Amino acid sequence: MKNKSHNPVVDRLTDRLLDAGFHKEQIVTEEILRTCYGYDATRQSAAPLMALLPENELQVKTILKLATEKNLKIFPRGAGSGMSGGTIPSSDGIIISLTRMRRIIEIDEANMIATVEPGVVTGELQEEVGRYGLFYPPDPASLAFSTIGGNVTENAGGPRAVKYGVTGNFVKGLEAYLINGEKITCGNKCVKSVSGYDLTSLLVGSEGTLAVITKILLKLLPAPESVKTSLLAFSSMTAAAHAVNAMFKHQINPSTIEFLDHHSLNAVRSELPFTLPDATDTVLLVEIDGSAAQVENQNLKLKELFKDAALLLIAAQDESEREQLWLARRKLSPAIANIAPHKINEDIAVPLAAIPEVIAKLEKLSQKINLPIVCFGHAGDGNIHVNVMLDKSDPDQAERGRTAIDEIFAITLKAGGTLSGEHGIGNTKSAYFDKEWDPLTIAVMRAVKKAFDPDNRLNPGKIFPAESSSSEPAARGN
User: Fold this and answer.
1) By C-alpha distance, which of 414, 436, 429 is closest to 357?
2) Residue 442: enclosing H or E segment and its boundaries?
3) Out of 1, 73, 145, 161, which could bridge 157 as a Cys pair, Cβ 3.0 to 4.6 Å?
């Protein structure tokens, strides 16, 4: 006997889906369980009309066609690790959770291409291709649980982006379903292809607003033979930024350059297995990979270049020492929770030369609003994770935090930066979108959205400012 809800639309859809071969556990209608599929890392939460868990592309097609018949909204979802509210549904929409579509379909060693479904976990793909001596470089902080489909739709980055680029640099092709249930195919395994519009790049980073991706072709690389990690301490952010530029000028090509500002260091200093000089204001974590000979040569150049300029330079000699150097970065997120119970976190990106100026302005802003602003991130590509620390139960602090976000984005854009380096726009930044882009540019983007989704039923309320009211109100932080 089929379970019935209190909503006739849900009941009719459930009957149709069961008749189409769905199992009961793939159809989520209980309110508490629906809410579980209506959250992300921003800690927003909303209960959709229902959540559906397809296991193959035919079931995705079925869902989209039924939703079109009923004129229902669709909200695609991966693991829910997004940081911008990109998967938050409305109460009259359907979540499509793609986490059950987790097959690694093929690892093509000859062409160095992996073909995967969107629910494959990023870290698990890296481990699997590693068994073939291959390497998938994109490494978002959430790689242990985030999915490839989510990474693609957000164009996720990570520490290794400085050398290897972001997720989009590795997407060779896609299969995806339009809102009406029709399939499109774009891209291929070819090294070069300039046939027609580059729809692959258009879908990458589209935040689930254009199509539901069901298959992904990913470029792989030979696994690096050797990896070496160093920690460099500097007396100022300006000195650290000059050090990053010096590395590039001297043809040192790190895979990772992470930075921690003085607020970050103060949060973790007591837990580190090594002692930083008292004058340390900024730390760089530098990782170099490649052949053993290349890595050895570049590490020697690094030591020679900064033997006098750095307050401290520690070069890891083995994997155990490498893990110790990374402790500062890995302990940071839990450590800054000791500064204040809540945070508003943003992921701005600015030109490399603007990093010291922007950090200095953020420090002045911190003093102005009397709230700590902790900055860390990817020094090699200008991606700064800005964390305004506060107690949201205090109305005055909450208001100062909201004011800080306005000023942070103004500082960023004035420096030639962008609202998001890797987290996307979602619904948390949509109100600021027209501050980065001019009206004509946004109009062209809207026209693209309308061509894919004429009735605005696919992940509405994301990216564009005027649509933000279409779903539940945005909220940042934790």
Assistant:
1) 414
2) helix 439-452
3) 161
Q: Among all chains, which residue has been given the structure tokens 């027609």?
A: 196
pLDDT tens digits for range 142-187: 999 999 999 999 999 999 999 999 999 999 999 999 999 999 999 9
At 6, is the pLDDT very low, low, confident or very high (cuts 50, 70, 90)?
A: confident
Phi, psi angle pair for 94, to nearest 5°: -115, 130
- Give the span between the Cα atoms of 365 and 348, in whole angstroms: 15
Query: How many other C-beta atoms can be found within 10 angstroms of the C-beta atom of residue 131?
Result: 9
**CA dist., res. 448 & res. 375, Å (int):** 35
Closest by Cα among 380, 381, 461, 473 to 418: 381
pLDDT digits (tens, 9 = 90+) for 189-200: 999 999 999 999
pLDDT digits (tens, 9 = 90+) for 455-464: 999 999 999 9
One DSSP character per residue, 233-250 reads EESSHHHHHHHHHHHHHT
The span from the CA of 380 to the CA of 275, in Å, is: 25
Angle between helices 57-70 and 8-19 (to 10 degrees): 150
* Sheet of 171-177, strands arranged across: 104-108, 113-116, 212-219, 171-177, 183-187
For the chain, what is the mean pLDDT? Answer: 94
Residue 472 has pLDDT above 90, yes or no: no
Closest alpha carbon to 88 in 450, 473, 430, 402:
473
Residue recorded with tokens 């508003």: 344
Instruction: Output the CA–CA distances (angstroms, integers) from residue 277 to 20, 110, 269, 286, 363, in the order listed.
Output: 66, 50, 11, 18, 21
Q: What is the pLDDT of residue 471?
A: 40
Whether 432 shows a pLDDT value over 70: the answer reads yes
User: pLDDT tens, 255-267?
Assistant: 999 999 999 999 9
Q: Cβ of 25: how many Cβ atoms within 10 Å?
A: 8
As a whole number of angstroms, the distance between CA 94 and CA 66 comes to 11
Q: Quick check: 110 pLDDT over 70? A: yes
Distant-in-sequence, close-in-space partners of 167: CB < 8 Å, separation ≥ 6 = 138, 151, 152, 154, 155, 156, 157, 204
Residue 177 in contact with residue 183, Cβ under 8 Å? yes
What angle (nearest 5°) sits at the alpha carbon of residue 153, between those of residues 144 and 42? 65
Q: What does 247-316 look like in DSSP terms, one character per residue? A: HHHTT---SEEEEE-HHHHHHHGGG-SS---TT--EEEEEEEEESHHHHHHHHHHHHHHHTTTSSEEEE-
Query: What is the per-residue pLDDT for 466?
Result: 66
Write down the pLDDT at residue 5: 64
The set of residues, in sequence order, having a beta carbon less than 8 Å from that of 468 and lying 6+ positions away, is 427, 430, 431, 461, 474
The H or E element containing residue 19 is helix 8-19
Phi, psi of 32 (to 5 degrees): -65, -35
